[in-house]
Amino acid sequence: MARNSNDANGATDREVVIVGGGPAGCSAGVFTARYDLDTVVFDRGRSSLRRCAHLENYLGFPAGMDIETLYDLFHDHAREAGCDLRSDLVESVERRDDDGFLVELQSGDPVTTDRVVAATRYGGEYLLSLDEAAMVTTREHDGEVHETFDDTYPAADGTTPIDGLYVASPSGASRQAIVAAGRGARTALSVVEDVRRGRGVPEPVVDHYDWVRRRAELDEEWDDRDRWREWFAQRLPDELDPESPALASVRESEIDRVFESYVDEDEIERRRERGQQRLLDHVDDDLIVERARVIEDRTAPERADD
């Protein structure tokens, strides 16, 4: 995916670097990449989820899910959204003199980026060169005092005192996979909202909603660009002129994004079928064949009656 020319000045390799390809990192990547931010996810290191025998409390899988298949689903979803997934270990993140960050890798050349999302369950040592004093806390274990990354350093929305640095994990709220995924998504929304601010979107409308809606629910009133222009203007403080060239451009882009989020019934059905087909890509072929035979046997009497 090419960099978005509207963001920063294109002087870095990537708009977003995510460290960690588990539930927090991939969830964050889905949201940033779907907002057309050039996102790379580095995934190689210790994984708490891979230590599980079988995950039984992740919503949407009534009988649980084996870890290998779940990871494949995470990564497939991230790639589908537009993320570049790379198997490499991030050794350090450092500030660049001009702007952004330099991400040093165990193998390969370093990567420059505008924003970093930390999403590794175990430790944040690769971040310590950025703000070591504030990021470090001491904890006692087996009678010994250890210095570790302070998982209370980020705010609840993943933001940190360092502009452009976000932490989805480690945090005190990331010990369950489904919670980690939610925190990754919330952190990514903070990234997107900061990008929107940088692009001139006014604060009252900076919130970002990533959803697809039914075209049938778009009534006559709201199926009108002028109505959305009124909505936009009503949310601006008095000192801002919605007809100024800069704000008018932002407004029209926002309205375009709103209308693009509505799909008709044919498109809904197409996406439903494609979504289920993609799930089949992760199901064991023998199980699919076995299930097909059950369906075949069950429908055979109906076909005979016909």
Automatic annotation (TrEMBL):
<dbReference type="Pfam" id="PF07992">
    <property type="entry name" value="Pyr_redox_2"/>
</dbReference>
<keyword id="KW-0560">Oxidoreductase</keyword>
<keyword id="KW-0285">Flavoprotein</keyword>
<dbReference type="GO" id="GO:0016491">
    <property type="term" value="F:oxidoreductase activity"/>
</dbReference>
<feature type="domain" description="FAD/NAD(P)-binding">
    <location>
        <begin position="15"/>
        <end position="121"/>
    </location>
</feature>
<dbReference type="InterPro" id="IPR036188">
    <property type="entry name" value="FAD/NAD-bd_sf"/>
</dbReference>
<protein>
    <submittedName>
        <fullName>Thioredoxin reductase</fullName>
    </submittedName>
</protein>
<dbReference type="InterPro" id="IPR023753">
    <property type="entry name" value="FAD/NAD-binding_dom"/>
</dbReference>
<dbReference type="InterPro" id="IPR050097">
    <property type="entry name" value="Ferredoxin-NADP_redctase_2"/>
</dbReference>
